[in-house]
Amino acid sequence: MQSLNKWKTAERHKPLVMRGARQVGKTTIVKEFGKSFDNFLYLNLDDGYDKDIMEAQMPLSDKIGFVFAQKGVLRNEGATLLFIDEIQNSPKTISLLRYFYEEHPEIHVVSAGSLLENVVDVNASFPVGRVEYLPVMPCSFREFAMAMGKQNLLDIIDNYPFQTPAVHTELMSLFQQYVIVGGMPEIVASYAESRDILAMDSSYETLLQAYNDDVVKYVKANKTGGAVRYILDKGWSMAGETISMEAFGNGIYRSRELGEAFRLLTKAMLLELVYPSSSAVQPALPDYNRSPKLIWLDTGLVNYAAGIRQAVIGAKDLLDVWRGRIGEQIVAQELLTLNEKITQKRYFWSVGRGSNGAEVDLVWTIDSQLFPIEVKTGHNSRLRSLHSFMEKSPVDIGIRVWSGPLSVNDVETTIKKKPFRLLNLPFYMVCNIEKIVMTL
């Protein structure tokens, strides 16, 4: 909402394209945003009548007036928001966005669609350069805490970074609930009201079935459709895991079919293949010839679909669950909520192979510098791969995300004895990782 208001008040605003997976809240937030305008028009291009209006051959100014009349909305003086939902159903309307920008900049236009991602970047009619993008992700931990009525704990995180044991325990408990429930807005809202995890099962099932039902809209070729369904069936249990196209899930699909299926699901923003980089400095260039890690959009869906929810519920430490992969999944998920760059990618660091190799779980750019992030327990001296990264890096801060309290240790790398500071960051403070690093 803050981002939408910033867009609204900008001196020049292009039509805004909301990008995000199904059911992350795009339609709900824009309808709420519409209440701040003098005029709000909503069109859903799943509706044939609304689609016919937008595709009708008439001047754009006449079309706007016609929409007011058809919707029975009296046009008031002041600002107008036109929200075009499910816009992917009409390539003609997609092309029309450029003319709103060029001919009617006084009209604020927002578009969205659950399958819009498969039109962006591939449809020749998409008005590249004449629209802006705003990604919509599942709820972050901060948003989950607000939904749960725990704003006071966020205030403590923001203003009093060194926690008492009691506050740390409460925050870790809240974060573990977030890991279990996930960040899909409808599920978060239901859980905040009922506090009943098992009551969410039907919502998870509905979401998962909706993603499967969308397969026929994602693809035309039967082979690729089968590969997409296979990933949606088997892939949840591989979250946080380094995968191989040749042997993914021991299935029948070839690497080319799986590669195309993963690209489609990436465009749908259901997952990301996180590739390794061998560089310890910017730019972190991905190595597409090596195996990526599979990171899904939401940890709650992962826990439910992979059947590991009970293990997370009963865990004393998140890093004990699923060989630590659920911890890596949630940290990667949290990192993506730190900014609104539609092109933002996540990487991990990997050099060498086998016993001589080293791998850091994630790397992240802060103030134009690349920082290593390990999601691990253990003694400082046993973070071998992080030490290896630090010996090649110009930065003097390494980051370990864990279930322990916030602390900073002065340590030396194992071989070259390079001094650096190890920031031990509790899971619930990943939301402030950039702020903390910049103040050290």
Question: Can you describe what's shown?
Answer:
The chain has two domains: 2-135, P-loop containing nucleotide triphosphate hydrolases (Rossmann fold); 201-439, no CATH class. Strand 8 (347-351) and strand 9 (358-366) form a beta hairpin. The radius of gyration is 23 Å and the shape is globular. Strands 7-6-8-9-10-11-13-12 form an eight-stranded mixed beta sheet, with helices on both faces. The chain has helices at residues 2-9, 26-34, 48-55, 60-71, 91-103, 141-147, 151-159, 165-181, 185-194, 201-213, 215-218, 222-234, 255-267, 299-306, 309-314, 325-335, 384-392, 433-439; strands spanning 16-19, 39-44, 80-85, 107-111, 132-135, 271-277, 293-296, 347-351, 358-366, 369-375, 397-402, 407-412, 419-426. 40% of the residues lie in helices and 18% in strands. Helix 12 packs across helix 13 (255-267). It has 440 residues and is an alpha/beta fold. The mean pLDDT is 90.
Short summary of the structure?
The chain is an alpha/beta fold. The chain has helices at 2-9, 26-34, 48-55, 60-71, 91-103, 141-147, 151-159, 165-181, 185-194, 201-213, 215-218, 222-234, 255-267, 299-306, 309-314, 325-335, 384-392, 433-439; strands at 16-19, 39-44, 80-85, 107-111, 132-135, 271-277, 293-296, 347-351, 358-366, 369-375, 397-402, 407-412, 419-426. The mean pLDDT is 90.
